[in-house]
């Protein structure tokens, strides 16, 4: 059985609601998300709608830190959906050894870069910059440090992974169009890596890091009309190079189905991010190089499919795999769009 086919356990709605003040009587509880770090449900009661989140890792201290961060961010005007407090002022309910949190339900829709105007792309960059600067103010731990490149992908490891994935893709029966494309992209990427292996980011000091959302992409941002209504899913809140999050987010928001980035929108987004975050052009340029290298060596979608038998990310593969090739060819144009 694959990971994606394992049914989520039904949450204990009745016992859970007894921890809250006047939540109403439950009417329905339907799953809306099944991720790697949590399961989500739309819980409807006689008092209203809620988002019920089952945190799979069960680390209460980490969950509470995420909750504190969103409460503080809301005070700074960042659109978030902090959890509902229980009768004791807590935000994590543990039942049967499982951790749950109740959030207000946010009516909204997801919008990718193709649905954003240039002005809205500019507002998106400013929003992420606001998130990063406010996180620096609200997190208790010291976030600023330098980041070495010891974890930058080693081409030797990537070549070994390519060989493994090629064997799995070629051995798939029955073989389909995805397997054919996967084989083509793996062979193509091996050639690109052989040609560009000397460009691996060196192990030198990098720009300062800070607290970041960790998973900023269209499915974690809800819009109401043209305005962001809530940034959700803070499970990967962590200290990382902040400019890399800005580049990764743009590569998800603004990638076209053919793998090209909408550089005009990227340029507007990046300029607004730099202003809001106080990030310099050199910081963005270095982040572009590191994320490009990361993409060149990354096969997470194929690992999910062939090693974990999880096909949820398969629809993303054509654009994501084409982007690595296009980005390599248009490296200077992409760098200029981010660093201006």
Describe the largest sheet: 5 strands, antiparallel
Overall form: globular
Tell me the Rg in angstroms.
Answer: 21 Å
Total strands: 9
Structural class comes to: alpha+beta
What's the total helix number? 11
Question: How would you state the average pLDDT, rounded?
Answer: 92
Q: Going across the major beta sheet, what is the strand order?
A: 1-2-3-5-4
Could you outline the blueprint of secondary structure elements for this entry?
Blueprint (H helix, E strand, L loop, with lengths): L12 H5 L8 E9 L3 E8 L2 E8 L4 H16 L17 E3 L2 E7 L13 H21 L16 H17 L5 H20 L13 E3 L8 E4 L2 E5 L6 E3 L1 H12 L9 H15 L3 H17 L2 H8 L9 H13 L1 H9 L1
Helix pairs in contact: 3-7, 4-5, 5-10, 6-8, 7-11, 8-11
Question: Would you write up a description of this structure?
Answer:
This protein is α+β, with helices and mostly antiparallel strands and about 350 residues long. The chain has 11 helices and 9 strands. It has helices at about 15, 60-75, 120-140, 155-170, 175-195, 240-255, 265-275, 280-295, 300-305, 315-330, 330-340; strands spanning about 25-35, 40-45, 50-55, 95, 100-105, 210, 220-225, 225-230, 240. The strands form 3 sheets. Strands 1-2-3-5-4 form a 5-stranded antiparallel beta sheet. A hairpin with a 3-residue loop joins strand 1 and strand 2 (about 40-45). Helix 3 (about 120-140) packs parallel to helix 7, helix 5 runs parallel beside helix 10 and helix 8 packs antiparallel against helix 11 (about 330-340).
């Amino acid at each position: 059985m694959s990971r994606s086919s394992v049914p989520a356990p039904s949450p204990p709605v009745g016992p859970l609601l007894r921890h809250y003040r006047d939540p109403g009587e439950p009417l329905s509880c339907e799953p809306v998300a099944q991720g790697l770090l949590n399961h989500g449900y739309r819980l409807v009661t006689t008092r209203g709608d809620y988002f019920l989140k089952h945190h799979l890792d069960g680390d209460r201290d980490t969950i509470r830190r995420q909750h504190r961060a969103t409460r503080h961010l809301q005070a700074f005007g960042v659109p978030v959906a902090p959890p509902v407090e229980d009768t004791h002022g807590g935000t994590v309910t543990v039942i049967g050894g499982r951790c749950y949190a109740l959030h207000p339900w946010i009516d909204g829709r997801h919008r990718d870069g193709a649905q954003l105007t240039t002005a809205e792309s500019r507002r998106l960059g400013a929003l992420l910059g606001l998130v990063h600067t406010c996180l620096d103010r609200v997190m208790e731990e010291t976030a600023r440090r330098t980041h070495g490149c010891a974890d930058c992908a080693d081409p030797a490891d990537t070549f070994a992974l390519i060989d493994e994935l090629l064997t799995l893709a070629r051995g798939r029966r029955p073989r389909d169009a995805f397997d054919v494309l996967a084989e083509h992209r793996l062979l193509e990427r091996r050639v690109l890596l052989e040609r560009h292996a000397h460009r691996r980011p060196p192990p030198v000091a990098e720009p300062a890091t800070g607290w970041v959302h960790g998973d900023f992409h269209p499915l974690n941002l809800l819009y109401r009309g043209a305005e962001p209504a809530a940034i959700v899913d803070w499970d990967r809140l962590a200290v990382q190079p902040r400019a890399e999050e800005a580049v990764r987010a743009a590569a998800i928001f603004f990638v076209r189905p053919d793998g090209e980035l909408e550089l005009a929108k990227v340029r507007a987004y990046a300029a607004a991010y730099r202003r809001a975050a106080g990030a310099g052009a050199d910081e963005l340029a270095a982040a572009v190089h590191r994320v490009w290298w990361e993409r060149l060596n990354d096969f997470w979608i194929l690992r999910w499919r062939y090693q974990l038998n999880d096909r949820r990310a398969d629809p993303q593969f054509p654009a994501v795999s084409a982007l690595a090739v296009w980005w390599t060819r248009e490296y200077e144009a992409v760098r200029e769009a981010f660093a201006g």
